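Q: Can someone sanity-check these two? First one:
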Amino acid sequence: MDTKNTLAELHSDFFQKSNTFFLILDRDLHVIDMSSHFMESYQLEKKYLIGKHVKNINLNINNSNDLEIYIQENNSRIHDGFKVIIEHPFRGNEHWNLLVFKMDKGYGIIGSNISVFEHQIDLRNKHTQRVLHDINSPIRSLLGLTNLADNSGKDSNALVKYFELAKQCTHNLSGIIEKITDSWTLGNNISNTESVDFITILDEVKGNLKFIDGFSEAIFDESIDDVSEFYFNRDVVESLFQNIIDNSIKFRKTGVELFIQIEIIRWENNSVKITFRDNGIGIAESHHQNIFTPFYRVNNYVYGKGVGLYLLRNSIDSLGGSISFESMENKGTTFIVILPNTLPNKL
């Protein structure tokens, strides 16, 4: 058995069939060889690649000039990697991490497709941002309770009542912080689903908002169908109720009784349709296109950072749902949300 030839054949076979991106360059950064599997995936032909400079190969790399500099400056050892975005003909933009090392007569590049990891990190970051945003409401309720306690004088019964309610708000805050911790330490993420009880979640959210300014002025009209066996991410549903109801209260008309109508019905393909209507100040048409834009604010006299609806839509969209709205200035706003049923498969 010719061990040397067999090893060479194994090396060649591995190089050509591996899913990993292998690229060999000469000293002047011209392509000598590239793994076949990668070329087939990206619909590239070897004859059009051999001899080309690395920045001219047809990969639609977003920062190929920077890649050339990176190779020239970091060629003495393997480094942490250089991240690039390569446009795939069918899958769109994909994230790759490239490792560069120097050989006797050129350079080698090993690439790993990290698109899945980048997507997971992005989802988790947005999930954490949304949860952090949702902390605002129980904090505002807690502040509302302290104001009530300050104005209660020496009424010991009222103080005891407010103290117990403050404990409840603090417990809610603790729960939200625990969700953030779990999402990072236990690997929980936005794709986790469970059975959703809309009535319970709505009651909990109203409890969290109970002592914010304006809540006592709101009259709720709720119509919730029997939507048993509905599975979705519970945190997203809770965030949905909290953000929309909170915004209705924030943007209420001064001196006018606030009506908030919430309707939940079974919809097409076993999904759920949730409709929120209010008679608040509404949104001028000139602002409609930017409502879901991060950090966009319709006005500056109502507290907020302009990220709640952006993060909420991102979460809903990533789970296959949709959120839209209709609004007229001085008439009110309607939000329509469709959530798919992510019922687990039963073996």
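And here is the second, same format, sequence then tokens:
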Amino acid sequence: MTGALLFLSLASAPEILLPPWPLGPDGEVVAVRGGDGLAAEGAAVEPISPGLFRVVPRDGAEEVRLSSGGASARARVDRSIGAIDVSFHPAAPVKGRDREVRLELTVALSPGAEGAERPPVIITSSGRVRDVTPDGPGRFRAVFEPESTRHPEVAVLLALAPRCPLCATPLAVGHAIVPLSAAIPLPGASEPGVSTSIAIGGRTFGPVAADPEGRFSIPVVVPPGARTGSAVSVDRSGNRKLTEVDLHLPPVDRLACAAWPTAVPADGRSTAWLWCVASTASGAPAPDAGIAISASRGSAGPLAPFRG
């Protein structure tokens, strides 16, 4: 009889089940098995369902103490956001020549943080990223495939190391702005035998001579942001003609944004972070760009600078 009573006593003892990572600033789900409730020092507790609670650390708290019945637990709070360095090769990729761009990522977490061994999530504004594989402690490699379109563009790659699948604040974040030039043949027409060259984005291409029907095609590489070129034609007598050529290219997207997590419950409490990267038309960073956001439902903003 005594053994049976001891078994029942042990089975009914409450147990606090913490996530396997430190508590993030956005809150974590904590389970209580065999208890009626959950109390916390240094955090707010929101009941979710029987036995499940959302624990949100208070501002400035470095540790949260939890208790339920006779059970207690301590959880460290980690608010830091590390950095992910993203580099790409070749350094000046050209659509039409470079079908793949090699990516190298280095995850540098804050001291004491764990999770650098997990592959980061990579979100791209165009094209796709595949084959994210480990390449050493905190290092990863991947392949970026640009869009098959023929016009130049600027691709933004955002790398995130999530704390958990629904944690808005990541362990680390970083990005890369990838200017993608385009290698295309530029056709034209002139008098037969006329030699033509064209300058685009600081580079000169050609000269090529028109065929007996007056047709010619100049292989060019157009960088993002270039909208026109300066063509120079020279006939057989040495007469020169300068013409401004409209390249008829679409405007370059200069802003890319991504949300993490990509979906949240419609519970009025869950949040997602929005990361935005602005660039010039040529693909240079634009840290002073004025960006304002709004949400059709819920609330958003304001945006604040980040170092990633």
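A (reply): Looked at the second one. The chain is about 5% helix and 50% strand. The two ends are 63 Å apart (CA to CA).
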